[in-house]
Amino acid sequence: MVRETSLTPQDFIYPLFIVPGKGVKNPIPSMPDCFQESIDRAIETAKEVFSLGIPAIILFGIPSYKDEKGTSAYDDNGVIQQALRAIKDAVPDLILITDVCLCEYTSHGHCGIVKNGNIDNDATLEILALEAISHAKAGADIVAPSDMMDGRVGKIRKALDEEGYCDVIILSYAAKYSSAFYGPFREAAQSAPAFGDRRSYQMDPANRREALREVSLDIEEGADIVMVKPALAYLDIISDIKMNFTVPVAAYNVSGEYSMIKAAAQMGWLNEEATFLEVLTSIKRAGADIILTYYAKKAAQLLQS
Ligand code: PBG
User: 196-200: long-range contacts (C-beta < 8 A, 24 or more apart)?
Assistant: First the structure.
């Protein structure tokens, strides 16, 4: 009766990794129980997710080709675009979110266009806008820019509006830190940078006030929902943002946060269910309205039973 925080399946977004082909369901070694799936298999997963009361999925694409400029990101017949059309058709009431970034589509694995060894911020914005439009055209309800280029939310908002997609929502990865916790994801999405790191565009984990600056810029530019990433080591940031702004706050319980619980559970060192429920509850208690988590299905099952 006096409990202050309760989790429900409605709080969650479940991530899917989409690969080309048919009948493919590749286990991701560093993320037990997570898979790279072809569209036909992803449809089955999407149905399961929806039946568990989870309102939304986010799609990550592993394209069949990559180049320096990540042009396959805005291919209207790309793996994400095809997946959007097929899942929308099969599960029309499931909210479809897409990750808008270049790292999965560039041959060098960086989130932007590389010029003379540096990221060219403004050249990247052009491609991101094309990618967002292409996702919207294929049926995305929400686009989620995760690249951390400056000015991308404004650029994407303007591009979507001009193309008639004024109802498409922007969930911006507003405070995205340069984190060691993304390791397993980069295996899952085959998106590790071939050289250097992402510290010139992702945030320094030592900075707290900078998150407020990043969030207020994104809201000014048109973000409808702002996200903090990672979640567990950044609960102070989630709390600050919740206190200082009125837009919905999302938190990304990232791959490394998932894998470390899985690994400890496999060793018999932690009780998996109790641990992830405690972590998810803490993220919500800190102020997250929405939690993006690889544990979404398991947590929803537990919460329903
Ligand atoms: C793309 C992106 C990443 C994640 C989500 N979108 C990787 C990165 O920035 O390196 C990581 C998610 C996770 O670790 O679960 N930029």
Answer: 196/110, 196/117, 198/110, 198/111, 198/148, 200/118, 200/119
Residues paired with residue 285 on neighbouring β-strands, in sequence order: none
Closest-lying ligand 1 atom to the alpha carbon of residue 294: 15
> What is the domain extent for residue 149?
9-304
Query: Which residue ranges have their beta carbon within 6 Å of ligand 1?
Result: 99, 101, 103, 111, 146, 182, 185-186, 198, 254-255
pLDDT in tens, 76-111: 999 999 999 999 999 999 999 999 999 999 999 999
List, by residue number, the catalytic residues. Answer: 176, 229
- pLDDT score, position 197: 87
Give the H or E element holding residue 235.
Answer: helix 235-244
pTM of the model: 0.97
CA distances in angstroms from 161 to 87, 129, 134, 157, 257, listed in the order given: 24, 11, 13, 6, 36
Token digits of residue 290: 């929405």
Residue 3 belongs to some domain of the structure:
no
Ligand 1 atom closest to 256 (CA): 14
C-alpha 128/C-alpha 133 separation (Å) is 9
Separation of CA 74 and ligand 1 centre (Å) = 19
Is residue 4, in this structure, part of any structural domain at all? no
156 inside domain = yes
Give the residue from 124, 134, 176 showing the smallest Cα distance to 155: 124
What gap in Å lies between CA 263 and CA 269, rounded to an integer? 9
Q: CATH no. for residue 146?
A: 3.20.20.70
Residue with CA at minimum distance from ligand 1 atom 6: 146
CB 202 within 8 A of CB 147: no
